[in-house]
Amino acid sequence: MSMLHTINKSPFENSSVSSCLSMCAKDSSILFIEDAVISVMKSTKFTEMVENSLKDFRIYALKPDLEARGLSLNNVIEGVEIVGYDKFVDLTTEHDTVQSWL
Question: What CATH homologous superfamily does 3-101 map to?
Answer without folding.
Answer: DsrEFH-like (3.40.1260.10)
